[in-house]
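The instructor's notes for this session suggest beginning with a concrete chain rather than abstract definitions. Hand out the sequence below and ask the class to guess, before any prediction is shown, which regions might be ordered.
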Amino acid sequence: MLSQTAIYALRIIGYVAAQKGRRVSGSEISTQMKIPRNFLSKISHTLSRSGLLDATRGVNGGFVLARPAASISLADVAALFMNLGDLDRCFLGLDDLDGECCMHQEWALLMAHVRKFLATRTVDQILDHGADCGLSIEPASTSSQGETQ
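After discussion, reveal the predicted structure:
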């Protein structure tokens, strides 16, 4: 349902948020979140331009959140990398969800839940409740400093 790029962006934001203000290098994020380095660079650039990440280049550079995690919804992140309106389209590529097909009705209901979930969940909630779901976004055991991109 979400594009791979949107998923990577959510991983990046979640990992940076888990660092609690510590600047984290692109290399560390790439390694810890298993995101290809060149892809991470493009995604982090967009996240920085949009005001979600603060990026600093250089030896002591890295990424930190530009806003509090509680103010960043999952939709804020995902919408930068995909058209959330696409969730309202038929996954078979047919006409918009017009209600004439039972598949369309079910799909529309499911996508309404997805859209609500993305809009009402924030990055801090991922960190607070992630452990309950088996999610582990922890700081790396060693602090790696370096260039942001």
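Then share the key points. Residues 102-120 form the longest helix (19 residues). Residues 142-149 have pLDDT under 50 and may be disordered.
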